[in-house]
Design a protein that fits this description.
This protein is of the alpha/beta class. The chain is built from ten helices and seven strands. Helices cover 51% and strands 15% of the residues. Strands 3-2-1-4-5-6-7 form a seven-stranded parallel beta sheet, with helices on both faces. Helix 6 (154-174) links the parallel strand 5 (136-143) and strand 6 (179-186). The structure holds NADP nicotinamide-adenine-dinucleotide phosphate. NADP nicotinamide-adenine-dinucleotide phosphate is lined by residues 15-21, 38-41, 66-68, 91-93, 114, 141, 143, 186-189, 191, 193-194.
Amino acid sequence: MNLKQKYGNTALVAGASEGIGAAFATCLAAEGMNLVIIARHPQPLQQLADFLKSKYDVNVLCITCDLSGLNACQQIEEALNGCEINLLIYNAALSYIGPFIKNSAENHSKAAQLNMVTPLKMVRLYGEKMVIRGKGAVVLMTSLAGFQGSGYLSVYAATKAFNRILAESLWYEWKDSGVDILACCAGATATPGYKNTNPEKTGFFTPRVLEPEEVVHECFKKLGKQPSYITGRGNRIASFIMQKILPRKMAINIMGDTTRKMYRL
Ligand SMILES: NC(=O)c1ccc[n+]([C@@H]2O[C@H](COP(=O)([O-])OP(=O)(O)OC[C@H]3O[C@@H](n4cnc5c(N)ncnc54)[C@H](OP(=O)(O)O)[C@@H]3O)[C@@H](O)[C@H]2O)c1
């Protein structure tokens, strides 16, 4: 059974115009699902929509919306005009790399809104409808940074921990409801956003950087099977060592030291 047969006709990808979000949208269109794709800039979004419509013969609705806005969820509801969402992927995120007190309180709030509050509202709204229908799925994109304290990524890491715990909790609540939910925990992935941070390779044991398509492929393989999943074998090994073998204090130090070196802080 493919995703369309299992969950329904329409998927919404929040943060869809590039990187992992665009890979999600492309994979879903290839499975024949109609799409609702969301981002702030209209042009790349429309380009992706045109490509997917012509290549896969699916319907694509573009919604231009800043997901860090207080009324983002309401704006999306209005643009959807009653369209049923069968698969929700919340992918957009804001990450600031650097000392906590060098970033403004305003940016911290913006990250909390984009990375936590808007996905929380969307999962509440569309998740309830899915549970009532007894069918549907949700994917929340999270990060290895959210597994322990991550110095110089503090707010981002904390918001990613929120998403993982939310998805795992709802996986338990919804496991007999027909609605699947997965926290997809990515490590470094070769997206434009990641490449723009200009990271330095920090050592021989750094896990391989995955392609966005690999993340999406692994994510859909595990959706419905696990509450959360780490994409990439190297990332799973690194995470096992950090979470299960090393003392937590050491894991936090390694994470902070690696980020500091990687970004020359
Ligand atoms: N790439 C990595 O190495 C990595 C590692 C671990 C976890 N992750 C997670 O994977 C997810 C995707 O990461 P990514 O690197 O592909 O891309 P990203 O930079 O987080 O997001 C890219 C997409 O989201 C949209 N977007 C960003 N801010 C938005 C906003 N305020 N409102 C609406 N749309 C917004 C962008 O379009 P616009 O700019 O037009 O809005 C673009 O389509 C994130 O949740 C991230 O935390 C990524």
